[in-house]
Specification:
Helix content is about 30%, strand content about 25%. By secondary structure, it is of the alpha/beta class. The chain has a five-stranded mixed β-sheet, covered by helices on one side. A five-stranded parallel β-sheet has the order 12-11-10-16-27, covered by helices on one side. A five-stranded parallel β-sheet has the order 18-25-19-20-21, covered by helices on one side. Helix 3 packs parallel to helix 5 and helix 8 runs parallel beside helix 13.
Length: about 525
């Protein structure tokens, strides 16, 4: 099942294990996936003398991981972790051993350990879902560091009856006590916040940290990482604050326009960004959001979602953008039950069904092309009079017999029966007539919205919410710079974001050389 090259890599990954681990399988003898699970786990176990497999009869199909013969957490895999979840299996072992690049910092671990009451969570996933591993791995970390949190990883492909009974139409879907806790991509910080609401927490005194730097970088995408690295190379002390390193890039399946890199993936690029950060003395404060930003006597002060207070003479804002929503009746109600944003993750749920794609830009056309091979009918709805996507995509779309395009329409409502989407209501902008389209799913692809709200009081923004910058990435507030998709810079592309991040860092360095940054702040502080 595993190629020899991959097995050699796994041997290297597991070479430093300090403890003994057992994959404890419990499976019904007749289960169709039992042999596949046994073969996979036996091959993984063969890569380390510290891992073995134990098989016993049970109901259904599942396995847990014992450490030195004991159950030290409540993680249960009701899945054969192939595909995108193979890394999840390896990380589960590494994290139990106290290693792995995805382990959170001490502040985050303290917050996890502070969870008080038991909470049982179930994550419903697909092995083809690119967003699922991050959610599953985050929930595993919660369970590893706090025995009050139990986590079941459930493959919808194996447990179809359960998924259909629950009406799940999007992955990952996280449930607790029979209720949906979360749908779609997420981060450890966001998931922990939701679990805290259910579990309650003990006080965490060490979270009230105050630290000073030369430069604070807000955002961990291509622009933020570039800004942090360029700042560190100039000798600045740097902290990068991010929900996750990679940002929006991690949602991209294929990247083919990175000059000198003919083809890569979002996950690989994010891993490369993280590795490059590790080459410099940069404090990477991940799994955090910036909750407050202000300027005090020229010093930029930010407060994180973990209660930390960080200050610096220079702040580079590179918080990127998020998927824009329709903001029409029914949209929020049916997210995960017919309303989706990722065709790669949720497209398989609509095999043989009718779907609509909202948006005629590149992302919308790519989504329609992807869905045309899955759904029986795909309808693209575009607000403008013409499609906005590249001609090569329009030409490809025109050749697909099951795709229809409707332009000059405004979506007014997502229609459902209380459990799932049944249709979509839209208005013809020329005739003002309203029509209802019968569909099983709606994929929203109407572009991005800048993640700039928290900085609204310290910098100027345009009507789209993008931060206003000059040609050197300087904002209207001295010592604050903007870079990447959060700004008004045209063309939201990875290579452009990287260039803008480096430009912002170099502008901060130039301002410092002229005494307009660090020296100016110190002078102002002395005067006060």
């Amino acid at each position: 099942m595993l190629e020899q090259t991959l097995k050699d890599q796994v041997k290297g990954i597991f070479s430093g294990l300090k403890n003994k681990y057992t994959f404890k399988i419990e499976a019904a003898p007749s289960h169709s996936a039992r042999t596949e699970m046994e073969n996979l786990l036996n091959e993984v176990a063969s890569c380390s003398e510290n891992i073995n497999v134990q098989i016993s009869e049970g109901e259904g199909l599942s396995f847990s991981i014992l450490q030195n013969g004991e159950k030290v957490n409540s993680i249960v895999f009701r899945a054969v972790p192939n595909g995108h979840e193979f890394t999840t299996l390896l990380l589960a072992v590494l994290n139990m051993d106290g290693i792995g690049k995805n382990l959170p910092d001490s502040t985050m671990i303290s917050r996890i350990k502070a969870l008080k009451n038991p909470v049982a969570v179930k994550s419903y996933i697909s092995l083809t879902c690119t967003n699922c591993p991050e959610v599953v791995q985050a929930l595993n970390i919660l369970s590893i560091f706090n025995l009050n949190i139990s986590h079941e990883i459930i493959d919808g492909g194996i447990n179809k009856e359960e998924v259909e009974k629950l009406g799940i139409q999007a992955v990952p879907t996280v449930m607790s006590e029979g209720k949906v806790l979360h749908v779609g991509r997420s981060s450890l910080g966001e998931l922990l916040g939701k679990i805290e609401e259910l579990s309650g927490t003990e006080p965490v005194p060490e979270s009230n940290v105050e630290k000073s730097y030369d430069v604070i970088v807000a955002g961990g995408g291509p622009a933020g990482v570039s800004a942090a690295i360029y700042s560190a190379r100039k000798g600045f002390s740097v902290a990068i604050v991010a929900e996750k390193v990679g940002g929006q890039v991690t949602e991209t399946v294929a990247i083919e326009n990175m000059i000198s890199v003919p083809k890569t993936t979002g996950a690989q690029l994010a891993a490369n960004l993280r590795q490059h950060l590790g080459d410099y003395p940069i404090d990477v404060l991940e799994n955090r959001l910036i909750k407050e930003a202000k300027v005090v006597n020229g010093v930029k002060v930010v407060k994180t979602s973990l209660g930390e207070t960080l200050s610096a003479p220079a702040l580079i804002i590179a918080t990127g953008a998020s998927w824009r929503k329709l903001n029409v009746p029914g949209e929020s109600q049916y997210i995960g039950s017919g309303v989706a944003f990722c065709t790669h993750c949720d497209g398989p749920f609509y095999k043989g069904k009718k779907v609509a794609v909202i948006g005629g830009g590149n992302s919308g056309l790519e989504a329609a092309i992807d869905l045309s091979g899955i759904a029986t009918e795909v309808t693209v709805l575009e607000f403008m009079d013409e499609l906005k996507g590249d001609k090569v995509l329009q030409d490809k779309l025109a050749g697909l017999p099951n795709v229809k395009v409707i332009t000059s329409v405004q979506t007014t409502e997502v229609v459902g029966d209380g459990a799932k989407v049944t249709g979509l209501r839209f208005k013809n902008r020329k005739t003002e007539e309203t029509e209802t389209l019968t569909v099983d799913g709606v994929f929203v692809q109407i572009g991005l919205i800048a993640n700039s709200a928290v900085f609204a009081d310290v910098v100027d923004r345009n009507r789209m919410g993008e931060i206003v910058i000059d040609a050197h990435c300087r904002t209207t507030q001295p010592g604050i710079y903007g870079a990447g998709d959060v700004t008004e810079v045209p063309f939201k592309q990875i290579v452009i974001a990287m260039g803008e991040g480096s430009k912002a860092a170099l502008s901060a360095f130039e301002d410092n050389m002229k005494g307009q940054l660090l020296g100016a702040v110190l002078e102002e502080a002395e005067m006060n």
